[in-house]
Amino acid sequence: MINKKIGFIGAGNMAYSLIGGLTSTGVAGENIWVSDPDAEQTAQLAEQFKLNITKNNSELVKAVDVVVLAVKPQQLSAVCQEISEQAQALSPLFISIAAGVLCQDIERWLGSQNGKELALVRCMPNTPALVQSGATALFANAQVSDEQRILAESILRAVGLTLWLEQEEAMHAVTALSGSGPAYIFLVIEALEKAGVQLGLDEKTAHLLALQTAFGASKMALESEDSAEVLRTKVTSPGGTTERAIGILQDGQLEALFLKALQGAQTRSRELAKMLGSENK
Predict the structure, then answer these.
(1) Which residue ranges make up each domain of the chain?
(2) Hey, which residues does 121 pair with through a beta bridge?
(3) H helices of the chain, where?
(4) Are 1 and 24 in contact (CB under 8 A)?
């Protein structure tokens, strides 16, 4: 069990999900701090999880061992510069869940350029973390110790699957695949629903069948040792209805279209990272 004090700067949905996951695994509310200007939001968190709240980010850094940067990417520069003095003096582990912001920029804003190099883990959780079913990729800078890697992984594992990246550049591909991925799955479910209605089903029936089919297929894939390709082959009987449908999708170049879409998302991720870093030099 995690026995460190953890602080969250930012009290949005992702912070809420992480706090919920941590407390459900036994982390005491008294070991969690939250700082956010939204008094109503922090009051709700305090009431639900019995944790500590403050509006002072610097005071939070002084109180904890781990600082989770859970603000919007556009706000991260100002927050990091605000706490840089305390960061340099106390050297906590920083975990950034701000999408698209590179380690080098966070390090610079925290004062590492002219001071001490700080331990920083950058991660990319996706929205299913809100229901403890997320997929999170993590990247650690050179200052992160083995113990801190385990700690960071334990925190993010509270909301789903975690894995480490060896190169930060791979985070752009992660953003394209799993970061944006839930929206692709929602689009597929939406398309199945609409097609079902066009085939004569009522909206409620089409909706429930599409949702349960997506859930069931994902559950099968997670619990099977077979690849998605093998599973697809197993449920595609020669000459049957599934083979006909799959053939039409493949004739429409579905795989090439997905590749093109993910390449577009990856390119945009690089553009946004450059923009966020250059705007706050």
Answers:
(1) 6-171, 179-269
(2) 95, 140
(3) 13-24, 39-49, 57-63, 73-90, 103-109, 146-157, 171-174, 181-198, 203-223, 228-234, 241-251, 254-278
(4) no
CA distance 96 to 105: 11
Tally of CB atoms within 10 A around 125: 24
Short-list 143, 13, 100, CA closest to 276: 100
- Supply the CATH classification number for the domain 179-269: 1.10.3730.10
pTM for the full model?
A: 0.91
Tell me: pLDDT of 82 over 70: yes
Q: Output the CA–CA distances (angstroms, integers) from residue 187 to 182, 183, 190, 230, in the order listed.
A: 9, 6, 5, 24
Residue 280 has pLDDT above 70, yes or no: no
3-state secondary structure labels for all residues of 17-63:
HHHHHHHHCCCCHHHEEEECCCHHHHHHHHHHHCCEEECCHHHHHHH
How many CA atoms within 13 Å lie on the side-chain side of 241? Answer: 0
pLDDT of residue 98: 92
| Whole-number CA gyration radius for the chain | 22
Out of 3.20.20.10, 3.40.50.300, 3.40.640.10, 3.40.50.720, select the CATH number for domain 6-171: 3.40.50.720
Q: Is 157 helix (H, G, I), strand (E, B) or coil?
A: helix
Q: How far is CA 203 from CA 52, 186, 193, 217, 276, in A?
A: 46, 16, 7, 21, 42
The CA distance from 125 to 156, in Å, is 8
Side by side, the strands of the sheet bearing 66-69 are 52-54, 32-35, 6-9, 66-69, 93-96, 120-124, 134-140, 160-164
- Give residue 279's pLDDT: 61
Q: Tally Cβ neighbours within 10 Å of residue 133.
A: 14
Q: Is pLDDT above 90 for 259?
A: yes
